[in-house]
Amino acid sequence: MTVTVPRHGAPGPDDEAYARKVAQRTIEEIESLEGAPHMIDALWNSVRICVQARSTVDPRGSGIDTWEAVVNTMQVGSAVFRAAGTIEGSVECRIHHELRRLPATGPKNFTSAPEWIDAFWYAIICRDQKRMTELCEVHQDVFRASGAEHDEYLYHWAAALQAYWLRQQSRLVEELTAAFRSSHPDSTEISPRDWLQKISYPPINLFYQFVKHDHDGFNAALVEALNFHKAYWTADEDRENDIEGLWAIGPLALACLAYDGGFPIGVESDYLPVQLLNRSWLGEFPT
């Protein structure tokens, strides 16, 4: 039995024009990156906004422009951490169809654990195993040296994801257990409680069901995660009007892992763009 979780909101008359405008501006930022590499943090934000803009008009991920926006985001996120993991010289990165050379940055305030998690989600969604491995080889010191302030559980959560992909079983158990314990609301100091409970924690539980190979448990957790996501993004008018909430990126990434692992996905929702979930665009162009 398939469970449907309806998405909040509906496309407005100006959304298509807005999505095109954001895409054009983002491409211009990409094209100027080698001349202004210090703007990579701004670009990292811009590419994600571009994906959000596409989600307003293409909830199922059916258009090539949407796939290109998602790939651009994956490429920029990976480039951020490739540069952060390098102290001297430069790195070569493919971004928006071209190889670009960027200077090494070392850790920066935008190379924190939650930013890494976001970059990893996009690598999963794009099924780019090479970038997934490269991201998982980024040392935890890069996150801690960023100077970003966030709760300790996010370090453990990032480490658990790294351990899973690198097949480090004992480390996975240790870090995932620590992520569960330290993400309890009584153990956190910085994360707002509703964000923790409805946005940040559900992917941890989803991942737990995934590594247990519990198909029914995963689907139940996926429904719960999407309902929590919807509740968070409809809690007030400002959130409801924020395009960031139209796709559930963390649950989508974990659903992609599960789908690729042979899990039957018994959930349909425009929070989970089906054409990205079922990897319809894979191989459309070099990434």
Describe how the helices and strands are arranged.
Layout: E1 3-4, H1 15-31, H2 40-57, H3 64-84, E2 90-95, E3 98-103, H4 113-125, H5 129-136, H6 140-144, H7 153-165, H8 169-182, H9 193-211, H10 215-233, H11 237-240, H12 249-260, E4 267-268, H13 274-277
Parallel strand pairs: 1-4
Antiparallel strand pairs: 2-3
Helix pairs in contact: 1-2, 2-3, 3-4, 4-5, 4-7, 4-12, 5-7, 7-8, 9-10, 9-12
Description of the structure:
The chain is mainly alpha-helical. It has a domain at 12-149. The protein has 13 helices and four strands. The strands form two sheets. A two-stranded parallel sheet has the order 1-4. A two-stranded antiparallel ribbon has the order 2-3. The model has no long low-confidence stretch (mean pLDDT 97).
Quick synopsis:
The protein has helices at residues 15-31, 40-57, 64-84, 113-125, 129-136, 140-144, 153-165, 169-182, 193-211, 215-233, 237-240, 249-260, 274-277; strands spanning 3-4, 90-95, 98-103, 267-268.
Number of helices: 13
Shape by Cα distribution? globular
Helical fraction equals: 55-70%
Instruction: Average the pLDDT over all residues and give the rounded result.
Output: 97
> What structural category do the secondary elements indicate?
mainly alpha
Q: Which percent range describes the beta-strand content?
A: 5-15%
State the low-pLDDT regions, or none: none
